[in-house]
Amino acid sequence: MNKQKISYALACAAFLGAAALSPAFADDTVVAGNGAFSGTQVQTNSDSSTNVSQSNNTQATNTVNVQNDTGNNSADFNTGSSVTIQSGNANAQVGIENAAGNNTAQVVGGSQGSQNTTVAGNGAFSDTSVQADNSNDTSVQQTNATNFANTVNTQNSTGNNSADFNTGSNVSIGTGDANATVGISNNAGSNQAAVSGGSTGAGTSAFVGGNGAFSDNTIDSNSNSSTSLSQDNTTNMNNSVTQNNSTGGNSEDFNTGGSVSIWTGNANAFVGISNTAGGNRAFVNGGGSGGQNSNVVVGGNGAFSTNNVSARNDMKTALEQSNLTYVANYIATMNDTGNNAASFNTGDSVNLTTGNANAGVTVFNTAGSNQATVVSPTIFANAALAQIFSNGAFSNNNVSLSRNTSTRVQQDSDSMFTNSIMATNKTGNNNSDFGTSMLEPFLFFGNFGMSNIQSGEANVSLGLFDLASANSLSL
């Protein structure tokens, strides 16, 4: 019996020492010194919750129509001196930049206190029930919904000039350049978050000792810590660009006397589109324990006593990242410096020179990406320490201890790119027929004058780059 008292005294000293070392914010429950046949019920709830919600909903619609015309000039049915048509340049420059909202969050969850429960020194036939619940939740949600619709139509013309049916001297038509430059930059919203879950307190400590015979003692302790982060991006981009540049379509027909010349400027189209879908960046720390073990001591209770202790500690970390990206680019360019006519002229030489027709298209699509660093919560050094000793005859002692740590990460990326590009460049389809020189005024077939047709270059430069979504995870 002396050994039993010594062990009981040592257990009490160990428990009280552990309680003294516990932090000041511990949940301490003591049921002690109650008389025989007493009934005691204790319920403690400690909740800590941190919730952050960030949301962006962006819709941008841009419609641009540009029409420049320096052509469509006529100089017909003139007699004597020279006839000259010179049109200026027609240029269009359009720049569109759309940037959606961004979510940035740095969240640190609260900390739990430890749970210390003592049921001791209660009389025979006493009935004691203690339930202690401790929860700590940290939740962050970030959402971006972005819709961009850009429509650009440009039409530049310096051609479609006519100098027909003139008599005497020289006839000349010169057109300026027709250029169109369109730049579109779309940058969808992004989510950035650094989330640290709260730490648990010291381990659950439960002491049931020194209670009388036939006593019934129940301790139920729950400690839950949850850290969750949800990031979601939904991006729709629709870009439609139509360009029509013309310096051709000029005519110098049915002229008599002198030289006939047509030279056209360049027709250039440049389109640059950059689409960047939203990205998710996350650092999640599931939090950690207070570093102490769970201690359960059941000792020194009387005969026929029933003692039940249940302690559950759960720590959960969840991360969900989702990207849904749809990008559609429709680009059509048409450049024409040809389709010129210098026919049925009588007299000197005929010169027809067309400029270059160039199209440069660059499309850069980058779908949203998920990048995450997740640190799972740390658990105690040992799962639990349970001591059952020196209890009376026919006592019934049940101890249930559970420690669970779970980490769940889900990354989803769905990307769809639709690129439709049509570039048409023309410098040909020029005519210089049925001309008659001054030496052969009575011949009505063939082209006996000095005729020179020179077409410029027709070039297409296309660059297309699609980068699908990527998932990166570090655990």
- Supply Rg: 43 Å
The proportion of residues in beta strands is over 45%
Which strands sit side by side, in order, in the main sheet?
A: 1-6-11-16-21
Q: Roughly how many Å apart are the termini? A: 54 Å
Q: How many DSSP-defined strands?
A: 25
Give the class from helix and strand content and strand pairing: mainly beta
Largest sheet: 5 strands, parallel
Q: What do the pLDDT scores average to?
A: 80
Task: Work out the helicity level.
Answer: under 10%
Described by the principal axes of the CA atoms, the overall outline is: rod-shaped
Number of helices in the DSSP assignment: 1
Oligomer: single chain
Low-confidence stretches: 1-25, 438-448
How would you spell out the order of helices and strands?
Answer: HEEEEEEEEEEEEEEEEEEEEEEEEE
Secondary-structure map:
Blueprint: H1 2-21, E1 27-32, E2 39-69, E3 83-86, E4 90-99, E5 103-108, E6 115-120, E7 127-157, E8 171-174, E9 178-187, E10 191-196, E11 205-209, E12 216-246, E13 260-263, E14 267-276, E15 280-285, E16 295-299, E17 306-336, E18 350-353, E19 357-366, E20 370-375, E21 385-389, E22 396-426, E23 451-454, E24 458-467, E25 471-474
Parallel strand pairs: 1-6, 2-7, 3-8, 4-9, 5-10, 6-11, 7-12, 8-13, 9-14, 10-15, 11-16, 12-17, 13-18, 14-19, 15-20, 16-21, 17-22, 18-23, 19-24, 20-25
Overall description:
- By secondary structure, this protein is mostly beta strands.
- Helix content is 4%, strand content 59%.
- The protein is built from 1 helix and 25 strands.
- The strands form 5 sheets. The protein has a 5-stranded parallel β-sheet, covered by helices on one side. Strands 2-7-12-17-22 form a 5-stranded parallel β-sheet, with no helix packed on it. Strands 3-8-13-18-23 form a 5-stranded parallel β-sheet, with no helix packed on it.
